[in-house]
Amino acid sequence: MGQYSFKLPDVGEGTAEAEIAEWRVKVGDRVEEDQPLVDMMTDKATVELTSPVAGIVQSIAGKAGEKAAVGSVLVVLETAGGASADQHKQTAAVEQPVAVAAQAASEQRRTGTGPLTLASGAAHALARSADSGSGASSGAGVSAGSTRSASRSADSGVRAAAGASRSGDASAYAVSGFSRAHDAGTQPRRGERPAASPAVRRRAEELGIKLQFVRGTGPTGRILHADLDAYLAEEGTSGPSRIGHAEPAQSGGNHYLYTKLAGGEDIPVIGLRRQIAERMQAAKRHIPHFTYVEEVDVTELEELRAHLNATRAKDQPKLTLLPFLMRALVRVLREFPQMNATYDDEAGVIHRSAPVHIGMAVQTTRGLLVAVIKHAESRDLWDCATEVGQLATVTRDGKASREQLTGSTITITSLGPLGGVSATPVINRPEVAIIGPNKIVERPVVRDGQIVIRKMMNLSSSFDHRVIDGAEAAEFIQRLRAVLEQPATIFVR
Prior knowledge:
By secondary structure, the protein is α+β, with helices and mostly antiparallel strands. The chain is built from twelve helices and 16 strands. The strands form four sheets. The protein has a six-stranded mixed beta sheet, with helices on both faces. Strands 1-8-6-3 form a four-stranded antiparallel beta sheet, with no helix packed on it. Helix 3 crosses helix 4, helix 5 (175-183) crosses helix 7 (225-237) and helix 10 (321-333) crosses helix 11. The longest helix is centred in the N-terminal third of the chain and has 19 residues, at 148-166. It is elongated and about 85 Å long. The N and C termini lie far apart (87 Å).
């Protein structure tokens, strides 16, 4: 008899721990491969974890509601001889030592080249086993950062290799051995649905394998994980592969199905992207956002902008919508000072700012940054436009100073012509409001009982509901809308 320790895998997004939501088994229960063991809850979702081996539950760690760290043992299973009988049946004799297969898998993983002789999950598991010197009966049930189905394949490869090694056959788990087991199996007849467990089906789909081409060695021709390994081995050494390529359509002819792809890329979240991720997560975790969307008729404002651009001096910058919105904000914030504020939620203090420091979201090649137009209340329209252009340039070039990127009291985020119909902008913590103008489009609207074409724009704005009530936000946006629709009022002191 042997033991298998099922450990909590990394269930996604770098989770360090997860909460036990519900146990599906208890001590003394007999479980089969792929049978659910426990439901684990993260801050994103509830994940069902299944057993990669068959056995009897000897112990479970923790109660529902308790948390477990990634890598800690959740369940200890008693297995027959260190592996289930089915696993011994699935593993045939081999022609190479396990160490050689592990070395080849490690080299293939390092270089990304080499012939396909084993399922990638099994090969990587063998390499990990060889590198660390650990036995097949230890380790996480699902490898960190991988999908459950891929890790089951890896685990089954390790357990199969270990079982063969314990039996005294140093040449276990070779490709030819799998081929013999494969040849002895049963291939589904045309039009017949192949028999396989959901886990096997998921793994086959990820690998791009069509089960009707796989011989099943299980009871009544059932396709097992080892049969997929055998199929992969054969495809790597004989004839054109049907893995990852289009198959002829069932109706015949020269038409082909779309290609199924496998694999992917792991990109470390570091540097500025990690800082952005942490700030966004903190803002959503701490701030109860609510978003208010209102449409604004900017026909007159656009006419004024076009006129000013046509008559501007050579040394004056071209005007966009943003300077007009900034000046309108300055005017309206006199009546709604609670919007031009920051909230220290740890100290429980709201700081209302007299100066208006407007944050401007700038998209760069490294990620999203917020440049700050300081003292917008003291700037005229042309000065605002000049500062916007200069700040946008230095920020995109990566030359903005810390002073230019900090200290905002309210933020504007705009995607210009990509602004869409509406959005739910994330507040730039510790601020309490963010204004999001969407794109300007011509739409038919009713004016004085007549349908006319007007230039319309939505304002999508988010507020911190801890300190801003819905009625306050609505009144603020309606006042801002009124100023934008009568642009002459922007310049009234």
